[in-house]
Fold each of these.
Amino acid sequence: MKYNFIEDDEVTKGLARTLIKLTEAQEKTIEIILQKVVPTIESIHDQVLEKPEYLSVGQVALIEGVCEKTIRNRIKEGTIPATKNDGERSYKIPSLEYYETRTEIKSRSSYRNIS
């Protein structure tokens, strides 16, 4: 059996060129995706790290894992500190006071004896 190394070498070179072209195409695609995604991720990151002065009822509901009605009830009970300006319908929950009362409530509940 006669083996032709020249043909085999050309096939290998052709496969290598194809592989290089595919790799370059993938790199370009990844670069395009990163150009679109990175600014969005940075924006989300900034929003998460930024602690606003006030929280909305919806934001507190997400943090607590309950519905907005529950948060409004807790505001009325005085469990969650909030203010409402004259003529406004929505509550403003001071974030610093909220987080302070939240840790207070957690520490009280850890001592509660349930039997």
Amino acid sequence: MRDALILPCPIIPTRCTLASPPLSSLFFVPVSHTANNATTTTCTRGRVKQRNPLPLSCAFKCAPLLPFPTSSVISLSQTFLRNFSSEAEREETRERKRQRFSPLRFSLRRPPPFTVNSLRLGFSDSRCGMVDPYVIGWVLFSGLSLFALYSLVFKGNGGNDRREGSSEKEERRSENVTTAAGERGSERRGGDADVIIVGAGVAGAALAHTLGKDGRRVHVIERDLNEPDRIVGELLQPGGYLKLVELGLEDCVEQIDAQQVFGYALFKDGKHTRLSYPLEKFHADVAGRSFHNGRFIQRMREKAATIPNVQLEQGTVTSLLEDEGIIKGVQYKNKDGQELKAYAPLTIVCDGCFSNLRRSLCNPKVDVPSCFVGLILENCELPCANHGHVILGDPSPVLFYRISSTEIRCLVDVPGQKVPSISNGEMAKYLKTVVAPQIPPELCDAFIAAVDKGNIRTMPNRSMPADPLPTPGALLMGDAFNMRHPLTGGGMTVALSDIVVLRNLLKPLRDLNDAPTLCKYLESFYTLRKPVASTINTLAGALYKVFCASPDQARKEMRQACFDYLSLGGLFSQGPVSLLSGLNPRPLSLVLHFFAVAIFGVGRLLYPFPSPKRIWIGARLISSASGIIFPIIKAEGVRQMFFPATVPAYYRTPPAEDK
């Protein structure tokens, strides 16, 4: 064979023909076995013939007998080993591929010429493998399967949302809208309503009337349209009454035997002081109101129902309908148990303190510092007529206020989430032995009679700072969104104030279907409401902590200082009462008065002779005051509370009305 080097091994090579091309350019492949089981390697520049591999040590065994110089033999051996080792590794790789893919019908024979139905795959040598149509089909099928798997795993949620959105659109196109009467009617394009309101309590009913009066189509879904019976939400501050007048709902406190409230009477250790609302600049009708909560709510529901474009329906909302991050409506069960869906560009959730929908619209951080135990006293008079009464008892305050011409509500605050059992008599014993001795004598007999009557009810006192998650198409309001301790009776004032802010924001907007734009304006609502709401929230939380008894000497001094500060009258009482009543809810005024009480307490301690012990207690009093108010302010948001004008959303106002 021309240009070939034959190296029989282990036989000493007897013939060697060196070709002009360098040995490094040759391919070494074993060709056959000799008679004595030796392996022969042939060097060619042509086609590779694959046989059994040659032992890698043959070149070194032959080197001493070759008629070449030693350097040539070493060079030849190194080249031989390098090329042969590389070829042996390639041969092993090809053998593994044959064994692995033999079921896939690879053709190792020379295939027919390339056609559309075949695919040429290059190998390391001059031969090439071919893949038949079955292999092509398998490869394509594998690719499609991987793509389908990827879609299911990584895009399944989005696909489900799109399918849900498309199904909802089809459902909205069909004539399957359920009216309040349970009849089928044709749904108007764009939804059956402009606004869906979940809940018809104080916030929901007032909002339905307000938006309906502005020409919005409002669909209200309330779990129970019967008159509620609650022990809270019975005292409306003068600031809340002014908001009621602004909304045109002042007549809702008429014909329900509501009682006017002109201030508070504060009792501590046998002493008392009277704190009157600063109402001199207002109309004679402006005052606080106390009433049965259920009667007040029913009056607002009745007034909202008189507006033709307001629809009240009894049902339980189970979930919000979301499509691509936008709330499109609600899914609910009507009073017959039928599953229905309602759609609107804006859904407002006002389903109260036990809301099951708030988690998707805010970060709820609910705290339950105490519980109220409610009683109704009859056939008695309050020491100070037309005033709410606060008894600074031990361990916590007791409230009295009139809710009708014949009934007085008593709320006993019990710290902690666990209260004495009513069923086994522990609660009655607690009220008689711990609370009754601290009550003014004028009310003590009626209090014990109410306990003996047995109509004792409890209600957890919840507080939750507003921490919204702005969501296109949805909004939280009322106790579902923001709660504070009910000691100051500020909840309804905050809710009605929020409704006024929202009404003013939405009034110029003719079309609510632009969800992203609407969401920006709703962010403005969260900012614009902050100063009033945060002031009332902070005052409620701080006053409750100050009014609760404590074994700590600094806290005792703070409590006494607060009572004495308010007893000074004039500016010292009018300022805090203006904050409490919602007539002047300014955050800076709140902070100034709160620390004025603390400094007043330090002055009391140091007068007339400051001692190291008194100085130490005074320092702890300031520290205690800071520890009370600053965490509440931080939770409410320092920037939004004190500097709302620095928040960009503060300047987002709706476009002007078309003239």
Amino acid sequence: MATIKLWFGRQNFHLSKSFLLLKIIAVVFAVLLFCEFLIYYLVIFRCNWPEVKIRGYDSERETLEPVLKAMFLADTHLLGKVRGHWLDKLRREWQMERAFQTALWLLQPEVVFILGDIFDEGKWSSSQAWADDVERFHKMFRHPHHVQLKVVAGNHDIGFHYQMSTYRIKRFEKVFNRERLFSWKGINFVMVNSVALEGDGCNICSEAEAELIKISHKLNCSREVGDHFSWHRCLPFWHFSRAHRHIAPASVGMVSCCRRQPPSFCR
């Protein structure tokens, strides 16, 4: 009898240990699930788009009008091969990927802008390191076809002004296209390489300024809706800022956004 009791006691002890181990595993799994997955939904679920009210043209009451849902991100700084530790990269990129994918699913933006410094080592990375970074970027920031993703270069992507080169710019534009003027739902976005706005007359700066003048001319001409055509309005914006020094120049950021029938640049 003593032997049987001892055997049952050992069995119960092993069962208790097994249940305790299962409980610990379940608790750890639940904590990981909450902290690494569900927490993003709980936090971003509290966010919502502001309701934009526009006064109707034919009445005094305010009416709702469809608006563009745009999300702006910046400085993702995906770590590279030189300064990025694999564990740090894994942790950071998992958090960014989950936050972005959750925001896409809950908020459903129509267009997403990433305003520069996508990569941390783009200014010196080799061709292979660049290709690896780009592959990771596309995995993290994957999106449905109906969502527009627009990316603007930053100094960590192509180098600071005196570090940037035509090669790095072309390499960036080959992946993210070189679109400068993007229009969606009647709203115009001017995407500018701000690193090339040093104004020292270098070839890259001169090319960027020429593109801005061309876009300015196009936007000024697009304002001629329902009015008599005027060559005065189709002159580039920079023509006026140079001819009339008392006019404050428009500040051109990395992305300028203007409403319907926009001026050349937003002030």
Amino acid sequence: MAAGDGFKQVPFGFDKNEVNTYISDLRKKMNALEADMRANDEKTREAEKLAEEADSRIKAAQEEADKKVEEITSQLEEEKSTTSRQLIEIRNLKERLDTEKKKMTDVLKSGKGVSQEATRAFNEVLDKANEEAAAIIENAKQQAQQIIEAAQQHRNTVSEKTEAFMAQLREQIESMNAGFNSINRSAAEILGTESAPAVTLPEPAAAPAPVFIQPEEPAEVPDMSVFDAVTEEEE
């Protein structure tokens, strides 16, 4: 019998058995509601703990990412400095070779009798120097590309771990909300209301709002214009 329908009246009052049955049913429902609320409180505590852990993990991941970016930036600067020094050495070597080549050309033009063997040896030295310069430039480019790829891989790993943990957190929160809805329905049934009374979800003590990772900016490609400058000189 729903609340508000009234009890069967008998002489000197209401039907005792009907009243006792109603009270017994009401107690059962109240006990069930209390059990649901205790279970939901436990879910709430678990969700709060999970949210705190998520916050800590996200902060740790961000700190790790910042540290890695700082290390990579420092390494890029070091590689750039090394490459710049190598380019200066290449330019100096090229200038010396150009000077020697001009001297050899002048000697040949003057007809002072430079042997073919000397000319061949000079050309071999020049070709070898050009090959070494090209190898140095190519090696510097490859090292820079490897550093960029390593940085991108690290960012992808951090992003995947964070997304997986946030999915677990959202699942826990959905379970907690389902528990509250069950309690609302039980309360509505006990009170005999058409709609469930409003229940305010407790705010987790240290749970930040879910943060969705924004698409990251593409890794900055080191300025390779210095290599073009050397290429133009060689041409």
